[in-house]
Amino acid sequence: MKITSETVAEIMKSAVPNKTKFHFDDELTGFGFYRTTGGTGTWFAEFRPVAGGSKKRLKIGRVGTLKANEAREAARKAIANAALGKDLATARADERASGTVKELVETYIAGKAMKETSRVFYRITLKTQIEPHLGTMKAVAVSRVDVQRAHSKMSRKTRYSANRAVALLSAAFVWGSKRGYVPEGMNPAAAIERNKEEPREVYLAEDEMTRLGEALREAETIGIPRRPSESKHAAKEKNRTVYGPHVTGAIRLLMLTGCRLREILNLRWSEYDEKRGLLLLPDSKTGRKTVVLSTAAQAVLDSLPRVGVYVIAGQSAATEEEKPRADLKKPWSSIACRAKLGHVHLHDLRHTFASVGAGDGMSLLTIGKLLGHADAATTQRYAHLHVDPTRAAANVIASKIAAAIGGR
């Protein structure tokens, strides 16, 4: 039959067939529509992807949703693509069978060799950033526009975390394309413009360090006053929270060693070389790391009660299922507030360690070794504090030139 809007409308108004009935167009071979026993009409295109191969049928859309001329044009493209070796029916089937973005990233996190701390961070990023925006989309169907829109939405809340999410997506697509999870070379997150990031440069001044020391002593003796509750049923007297030596000791070690938080919380007594004054970390962020301890840092370590495997004892200390302490967020928030430090993060204690060294004229190379930087460029962020040696060198050079030219 000649398929037109009129002829199709006439058939759709007729009695419902007792079995699915097919109608083919007499002009475009393979184009047609069928009507089911429920009365629904569906456009389709039939073709052979390979000469002599089995015939395939591709659903185009519902009658009523697509007009006859629109369905004819879609069928014409599908049949033409089949003649060129492009099987749209198989492509659609592959897309339906392919995994979601969530599944792709989960597989990447589970299958990629990485540190456990990185794995935990990636899982949090997937859950909080990627899943809400792209998680249910088919990985093979994601476009650069989809990722850009998701990044923009993430950026409204957390600009830096949005960048980390896109970086994780990009890595997952690169990894997946090499293993057949998505087409080779596919990476819709590759060209996404990231938010500009400014590194934090928060260092404690001498008076702030003094206040922190006072707060630490108060925390481990009489306790830090709890913040008053706004509830009318709350006790009028402010109770205090006493923090044990492992909490205050961890904060002191962060200050006195410049170590990262997890390096201190995961530290085992077996990694402390008391005789040589060293920490022998088997797996830091930059791999194996040796921390040279100061006398003050050793004094803190030697004063800590040895409970269990870990230096900083957690709730499960000395049990069969002992785990390192998860974090110091709550005690640090209370102690930092008591010391009136404002929005100082625990990681800023590491920056403070480096800034004191740079300010006292130590070389950036030495500071980098103390901090365990794998790349010397990382230590350059403290270069602006490292002024005394530079000025001394400038004075030596300039004095010789001034003497030669008769300057004062």
Can you offer a commentary on this structure?
The protein has 408 residues and is of the alpha+beta class. The chain has three domains: 5-97, Double Stranded RNA Binding Domain (2-Layer Sandwich), CATH 3.30.160; 101-177, DNA polymerase, domain 1; 206-389, hpI Integrase, Chain A (Orthogonal Bundle), CATH 1.10.443.10. It is 47% helix and 10% strand. It has helices spanning 5-13, 68-83, 88-97, 101-111, 116-134, 144-155, 159-177, 206-220, 245-257, 261-265, 295-303, 329-338, 348-359, 364-371, 376-379, 388-405, and strands at residues 21-24, 31-35, 41-47, 56-62, 224-225, 240-241, 272-273, 278-284, 287-292. The strands form three sheets. A four-stranded antiparallel sheet has the order 1-2-3-4, covered by helices on one side. A three-stranded antiparallel sheet has the order 7-8-9, with no helix packed on it. A two-stranded antiparallel ribbon has the order 5-6. A hairpin with a 4-residue loop joins strand 7 and strand 8 (278-284). It is elongated. The termini are far apart.
Q: What descriptive keywords fit this protein?
A:
single chain, hpI Integrase, Chain A, elongated, Double Stranded RNA Binding Domain, alpha+beta, DNA polymerase, domain 1, 9 strands, 408 residues, 3-stranded antiparallel beta sheet
Concise account of the structure shown:
The protein is of the alpha+beta class. The protein is built from 16 helices and nine strands.
CATH architectural category of the largest domain: Orthogonal Bundle
Shape by Cα distribution: elongated
Cα-to-Cα separation, first versus last residue: 105 Å
Overall domain count:
3
Q: How are strands sequenced across the largest beta sheet? A: 1-2-3-4
Query: By helix and strand content, what is the structural category?
Result: alpha+beta
